[in-house]
Design goal:
single chain
Length: about 70
């Protein structure tokens, strides 16, 4: 019979198994808040974000372009 430690190293554990075995879950992804029109630019914090012609949020002061997210809010 293999020891439990050897079995956990070779098997990908689910989050429930990690919780039950009290294993540190440092690989948890943080929830990211989506940017919205009218919010302050996260880069320069001077101008408010507005949509450009391609429905991407853009800052007119520093040129920050939020091409991630892919959804209009």
């Amino acid at each position: 019979m293999l020891p439990i430690i050897a079995m956990t190293e070779t098997k990908n554990l689910s989050s429930l198994e990690k919780l039950l075995l009290d294993i540190d879950q440092s690989d948890i992804v943080e929830v990211v808040r989506l940017l919205r029109k009218g919010e302050l630019c996260p880069q320069c914090k001077i101008m408010h974000l507005d949509y450009n012609g391609l429905l991407q949020l853009e800052c007119s002061a520093c040129g920050f372009l939020n091409s991630e997210g892919g959804s209009c809010t």
